[in-house]
Amino acid sequence: MLLLAQIYLDFPKTADSMVISPNGAYMFASLGVKGEGSLEVVIRGIPSDQDGNISVIIKNGIITNREFKTVKLPYDKGLYEKVQSEIESHQSKISSTKGKIAEVEYYINILNAILEGVKAGKVDNFDKFIKMSQRLERYYILRDSLMRVLNETNRMLDSLKNISENLLTVQGEMKILVENAKDPTLEFRIFYPGGFITLETEYLMYYSSNKIKVSSVGKIRANLPTKLDVKNLIITNLEPSFYAPTHQPWYIMDLHYPLLMKAITLQEKISPQSEGEIDINFTRISTRFEVKRQITLDKFKPALIVLFEREYEAREIVSCYPELSQKGYLSAIFKPDMDLLPGNLKVFLNGELSAEYYFNGSVRDAEDTVFLGFDPFIVGDVKVINQTREDIKGKQPLTREKREYVISIQNLRKTPTDLIIYVRKPFAAGNVNITKFEVYPKPKEDLGDGLLVWEKRLQGGEKFEIRRVVEITYPKGSIVNW
Questions:
Q1: What angle do CA 61, 63, 68 make, to 5 degrees?
Q2: pTM across the whole model
Q3: Where are the beta strands (DSSP E) in 152-210?
Q4: CA 219/CA 271 separation, integer angstroms
Q5: What's residue 88's pLDDT?
Q6: Is 432:472 a contact under the CB 8 Å cutoff?
Q7: End-to-end distance of the chain based on CA atoms, in angstroms?
């Protein structure tokens, strides 16, 4: 039987490069192996369920087989060994303390026996009785002190064991059989899906006087079995496609659930950048942030990277959607010169925090809108001013219901304001039929999905009203949700 040289190695703690995109990260690393002939290389420290995402290429050898299994190993080997050493030290201290307690209790028992003899008149020496009583008291004090030391040491030991257990992580172990080896090099490419390495982008946007200043910080979190140093880190907005588009047949079918009415959704510490820390490169299809310093990915603390600071020209718009909010909305339109990643956004309007929400990202050289916060000087209101209901006789009894709304928007400023106004147009669902819909004045545009829009310039204090009439019929006795 051929005996293989067994070599145990840790998965590379330093990656040659890593590319982080919105749906995961690719890591590239290499590992040198000393040995010739037939080798069995066992590599530990791989994420436990990533066997299918690892590609291995070998130089100076041939891979004939590879196996993967799960083991429990320390996240930080050096720290784990220190904790184990402390555990052994505390176990030794507990054993020594228990021995001292046993010795003290032995003397306590002897002294108690002698004192019982004195009390019984078997030993007639009062001075000796006093001295032995004092010595016995000292032994009791010593025993109590040793018991406190023992309890505290046991508590510390339990804490150390808990730390030791928490330092152990479930890791993958890969066994690779290599033939014709001559000091081979293993080159790894591993794809970490979302959850193992994640990028959280955070933005600060400052708007004032038709200018918007954008600062961005990347926060990288790693859920890996060990620490990982990355020599060359690239962050990109490009999401790789893992399949080619194929024809899909078009089916037209009946639906067994009502169509829901849709409506527009209005969204609700600058770190100093090190000089030359980031290179921003534009490809035909992506924006790439290339970090020029080594980054350490640690399970217990995120890596922070200042991505960029930019200032853009912007124009302010004011809108009002009274059916969503009685307050107006302030927004700014700008055109970024790079693709912006999705992330958490804080907006400051003239130095005050005015909005905080999740930003869906932007495409370079295309206009995008940033929500700046509420405008309390634009006030909207919706009122039902007339409502009628009557039953209609027939083969199928129906109920006809009609509602008339007044939707008002007022500019409380003293100066004119250009406004974009949104109002909903209803859809019928279930057994409801819309028999009449009127709105006036006529909207500028129907955006689809049940959303009408007006553009209006309101003078200071001026109020603008929109009247909307909706008439429906439905089976008599039904409950209708308007």
A1: 140
A2: 0.65
A3: 168-182, 185-193, 197-208
A4: 12
A5: 92
A6: yes
A7: 82
215 in Cβ contact with 270 (< 8 Å): yes
* Segment (H or E) for 101: helix 77-119
Residues in the chain with pLDDT values less than 70: 1-4, 49, 118-128, 240-276
Q: Tokens standing for 32?
A: 């040198």
312-335 pLDDT, tens per residue? Answer: 999 999 999 999 999 999 999 999
Residue type, 408: S
Please list, in sequence order, all residues whose beta carbon lies within 8 angstroms of the beta carbon of residue 268, skipping any fewer than 6 positions away: 355, 357, 371
Name the CATH code of domain 377-475 (choices 3.40.630, 2.60.40, 2.40.50, 2.170.16). Answer: 2.60.40
pLDDT at 122: 58
CA separation for the pair 475, 56 (Å, rounded): 68
Is residue 228 within 8 Å of 14, Cβ to Cβ? yes
The pLDDT assigned to 172 comes to 84
What are the domain boundaries of the chain?
Answer: 1-194, 377-475
Contact 423, 431 (CB under 8 A): no
**Chain CA centroid to CA 475, Å:** 49
Distant-in-sequence, close-in-space partners of 170: CB < 8 Å, separation ≥ 6: 48, 70, 71, 72, 225
Q: Which residues of 31-54 are buried (b: 16+ CB within 10 A; e: fewer)?
A: bebebeebbbbebbbbbbebeebb
Contact of 56 with 172, CB cutoff 8 Å: no
Using the structure block, give the residue that is written with the tokens 């000796």.
128
Could you tell me the two tokens for 126?
């009062």
* Res 262: pLDDT: 29
Which pLDDT does position 273 carry in this prediction?
35
Cβ atoms of 297 and 224 within 8 Å: the answer is: yes
**What pLDDT score does 249 carry?**
57
pLDDT digits (tens, 9 = 90+) for 350-396: 889 999 999 999 999 999 999 999 999 999 999 999 999 999 888 88
CA distance 19 to 239: 11
Q: Cα(376)–Cα(378) distance, rounded to whole angstroms?
A: 6
Place of tokens 């910080």: 217
55 forms beta bridges with 189
10 Å Cβ neighbour count for 217?
Answer: 20
